[in-house]
Write a structure and sequence with these properties.
This protein is α/β, with parallel strands linked by helices and 316 residues long. It has 13 helices and nine strands.
């Protein structure tokens, strides 16, 4: 058995398969042992812990062939999530395929921040109106309603009908289809009215930066969901142009952005939403990644007797 041997014939046990898969992927990925374990686990229906605990368990010839085929595809750069058709996100098992981007860990921070805000509003007695733009696989929208049962609905919009079909599959499979309303259209156009919470992971990679992307991202993930217009911020500029008409008083927006885009995006937010309080959060790797902007609450409506008193005082 060797790293260059494409034949699965020597793969008689889980341990054989893991060793061969790791060696075969050593030159193709930074995590060959993890990738081999995920692919083998997908084929034999076992967790990584189980694979490592019982390396002596036998693998059938049919499964060895299937595993070898996945290893060959991974060695050519195809993402593991597309090979298995699954990706864990916020503890949820999502269906994933090339119709949408593969959800990233940094986007979990976006969801966690939005959940905290939503819960605060719910505890205040007002269910927020929530929209997720560029929903893709539905990861954000599905995670929001799955982790906060009190949320009655999240609008999930995307310009890609293929991505929306995948999002529908995920919402249905995870039992939240009745609380995720899928909308087809560009940015805010399909959203039926003003919202309290807007969450968006829009395309933000500059087209000129394509060559610096990891090869598996550049070659396999959908360009429509990766590349922002102009310098990468084109989608976000168009979003901010229409935002004021779609935000209720006290509304919050949560946006993911690229590692070097903080100054331009903060300036854009300050220009388009001059009264908003703006914060930026770093992702788990320490890169600036999430912009949060919150509008001031509407002033309380004066009571009729307060107005009368004010008028009398002025007159005096």
């Amino acid at each position: 058995m060797s790293a260059t041997d494409p034949s699965p014939a020597p793969l008689r046990t889980w341990g054989d398969a893991l060793q061969w898969g790791t060696l075969s992927l050593a030159a193709a990925t930074a995590t060959p042992d993890l990738d081999a374990a995920v692919l083998l686990g997908h084929i034999v229906g076992a967790s990584r812990a189980l694979l490592l605990a019982y390396p002596e368990r036998l693998i059938t010839g049919e499964r060895a062939l299937a595993f070898a085929a996945l290893v060959a595809r991974r060695s050519r750069g195809e993402p593991v999530a597309y090979l298995t058709g699954h990706r864990e996100f916020m503890g949820l098992d999502l269906l994933i395929d090339p119709r949408a981007l593969i959800p990233r860990p940094e986007t979990e921070l976006l969801v966690e921040l939005a959940l905290e805000d939503a819960r605060s509003r719910l505890e205040g007695g007002t269910p927020p109106v929530v929209a997720d733009l560029g929903t893709g696989s539905g990861a954000i929208a599905v995670a929001l309603v799955a982790h906060e049962p009190r949320l009655p609905r999240v609008y999930a919009a995307d310009i890609s009908t293929d991505a929306l079909a995948l999002a529908a599959d995920n919402a249905s499979r995870l039992g939240v289809a009745d609380r995720v309303t899928l909308l087809h259209g560009d940015l805010l156009a399909p959203v039926p009215g003003p919202v309290d919470l807007l969450v968006a992971n829009l395309p933000y990679v500059a087209p000129g930066d394509a060559e610096i992307l990891p090869p598996d991202v550049r070659a396999y993930e959908p360009a429509l969901a990766l590349f922002g217009d102009e310098d990468g911020l084109g989608h976000l500029r168009r979003l901010f142009a229409d935002l004021p008409a779609y935000l209720r008083p006290g509304a919050s927006i949560y946006l993911e952005f690229g590692y070097d885009q903080r100054p331009a995006l903060v300036a854009l937010a300050q220009t388009r939403l001059p009264t908003a309080a703006i914060r930026v959060f770093a992702d788990y790797a320490g890169w600036d990644r999430i912009l949060v902007a919150r509008l001031p609450d509407a002033p309380p409506t004066p009571r009729p007797d307060d107005n009368s008193a004010s008028r009398r005082s002025t007159a005096n």
